[in-house]
């Protein structure tokens, strides 16, 4: 009986400790938020690290995080990388309260390439998969809001993601290629629920870098390579490559950040 009581007490203490940790995280990233520019081209300073914001999509308040690199200068236009996460984070609630989000590999590119990183959130009933344009357009709304708060080089905004987020990237290829300087995907099959991908929108001026693991059990390398081979003539800006091993979530492996940074480095150098 004493062991059961001790176990219950330990569980309660752990639960409240985790809740406090989450509350502290949210309080911190809320405190890093900045207001819209005070005038045309006049932006306030921003603390490095994570800042939390919300956009309104109908009656849903959708969270997103902006990561500010150490070298950010509000007086100079700065690149922006948008990352769409995979389905594993699209749970019953938006997962912005979890401090583990800070470990997402995409944030590692910020200081390396002096770029801001925009990290939108999805959930089970509001995720970027399927043909509902409201979900996709909300990401555009978040980009526009970010451009009002930070000095963003609007000619150097990039979007991509992993798995579900990578598939969603092709929606932006289809509908808003004009808004982006380029695209990137990890572990994503090129398809859209609404119809064919407009591969002609992947140009040398607006390239796409795609990376896949040959041992991915979800979207097989053979299937994706077949799509690439069938459409590469229509997509002269599509750079498709693969790593030998790592599985579907290879960017989360110990060497994943280096692989991710190398691919983003090619895109940002365009």
What would you note in describing this structure?
The protein has six helices and eight strands; from the N terminus they run αβββαβαβαββαβα. The protein has helices at residues 2-31, 108-113, 133-149, 164-175, 221-231, 256-268, and strands at residues 49-57, 60-68, 78-84, 115-120, 152-162, 182-186, 208-213, 238-243. It is 33% helix and 22% strand. It has a single domain, classed as Rossmann fold. The longest helix is centred in the first third of the chain and has 30 residues, at 2-31. An eight-stranded mixed sheet has the order 1-2-4-3-5-6-7-8, with helices on both faces. The protein has 270 residues and is an alpha/beta fold.
Radius of gyration: 20 Å
CATH homolog superfamily? Alpha/Beta hydrolase fold, catalytic domain
Order of helices and strands: HEEEHEHEHEEHEH
Largest sheet: 8 strands, mixed
Number of E-state strands? 8
Q: Which architecture does the CATH hierarchy give at level 2?
A: 3-Layer(aba) Sandwich
- The overall number of domains is 1
Summed up, the helix count is 6
The first-level CATH class is given as: Alpha Beta
Sequence of strands across the biggest β-sheet: 1-2-4-3-5-6-7-8
Shape: globular
Strand-residue fraction? 15-25%
CATH fold name: Rossmann fold
What can be said about this structure in brief?
The protein has 270 residues and is of the alpha/beta class. Helix content is 33%, strand content 22%.
Which short descriptors sum up this protein?
Rossmann fold; 270 residues; alpha/beta; 8-stranded mixed β-sheet; single chain
């Amino acid at each position: 009986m004493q062991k059961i009581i001790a176990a219950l007490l330990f569980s309660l203490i752990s639960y409240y400790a985790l809740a406090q940790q989450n509350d502290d995280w949210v309080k911190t990233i809320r405190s890093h938020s900045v207001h819209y520019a005070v005038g045309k081209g006049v932006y306030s300073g921003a603390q490095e690290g994570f800042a939390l914001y919300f956009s309104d999509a109908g009656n849903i308040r959708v969270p997103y995080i902006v990561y500010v690199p150490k070298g950010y200068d509000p007086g100079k236009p700065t690149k922006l990388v948008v990352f769409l996460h995979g389905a594993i984070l699209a749970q019953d609630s938006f997962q912005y309260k979890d401090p583990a989000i800070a470990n997402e590999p995409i944030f590692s590119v910020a200081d390396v390439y002096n770029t801001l990183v925009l990290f939108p959130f999805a959930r089970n009933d509001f995720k970027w998969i399927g043909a509902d344009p409201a979900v996709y357009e909300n990401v555009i709304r978040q980009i526009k809001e970010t451009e009002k708060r930070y000095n963003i080089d609007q000619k150097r905004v990039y979007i991509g993601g992993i798995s579900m987020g990578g598939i969603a990237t092709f929606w932006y290829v289809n509908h808003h290629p004009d808004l982006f300087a380029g695209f990137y995907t990890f572990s994503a099959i090129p398809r859209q629920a609404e119809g064919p991908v407009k591969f002609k929108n992947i140009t040398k001026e607006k390239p796409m870098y795609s990376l896949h693991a040959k041992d991915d059990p979800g979207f097989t390398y053979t299937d994706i390579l077949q799509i690439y081979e069938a459409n590469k003539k229509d997509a002269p800006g599509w750079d498709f490559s693969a790593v030998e091993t790592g599985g579907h979530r290879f960017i989360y492996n110990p060497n994943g950040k280096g692989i991710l940074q190398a691919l983003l480095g090619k895109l940002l150098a365009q």
